[in-house]
Amino acid sequence: MTRVAIVSPSSRLRASLAAALRASPAFDVVAVAASDSNLPLSAEVVVVAHAMEDSLTPVQPTRDNAVGTVLTNREREILALLADGLANKQIAARLGISKNTVKTHLELLFDKLGVSSRAEAVATGVRRGLLLL
């Protein structure tokens, strides 16, 4: 069973998502909140949702903001492969690029996310809604 936390500024959207996830035996909703400031450590997945009307208002990116980190398609691919537990050599083979190119992408990805490890990159990617597990 996957432990899920739901974050949304819309109480209606939070309630709808929580009801939908609770209807499945695959999910255990451990938190439903308006912000990600006090999420429980037991959450394995954080769902960050904005209603369509909320998404029309531009969000000013900040370092701790759940929205605002812009990754290239290649960085998103590499982040997903990190989440799958692949090593640099495996990522290079999967994407048809060199190990040095993977290292360069990882350095840029780590800088953009403000992290220093692969695990931290995956956790930050999930928390910011850049990666779905």
Describe, in plain words, how this protein is organized in 3D.
With 133 residues, the protein is α/β, with parallel strands linked by helices. The chain has 6 helices and 3 strands; from the N terminus they run βαββααααα. It has helices at 11-22, 52-55, 73-83, 88-95, 99-113, 118-127, and strands at 2-7, 27-33, 45-48. It has a 3-stranded parallel β-sheet with strand order 2-1-3, with helices on one face. β1, α1 and β2 form a beta-alpha-beta unit. α3 crosses α5, α3 (73-83) crosses α6 (118-127) and α4 (88-95) packs across α5 (99-113). The chain is elongated. The model is unreliable at 54-67 (pLDDT under 50).
For the secondary structure, the number of strands is: 3
The low-confidence parts are 54-67
Helical amount among residues, as a percent range? 40-55%
Instruction: Average the pLDDT over all residues and give the rounded result.
Output: 82
The secondary-structure element order is: EHEEHHHHH
Distance between the termini: 13 Å
- Structural class comes to alpha/beta
- Tally of helical runs: 6
Rg, Å, rounded: 16 Å
Task: Briefly say what this structure is.
With 133 residues, the chain is of the alpha/beta class. The chain has six helices and three strands, in the order βαββααααα.
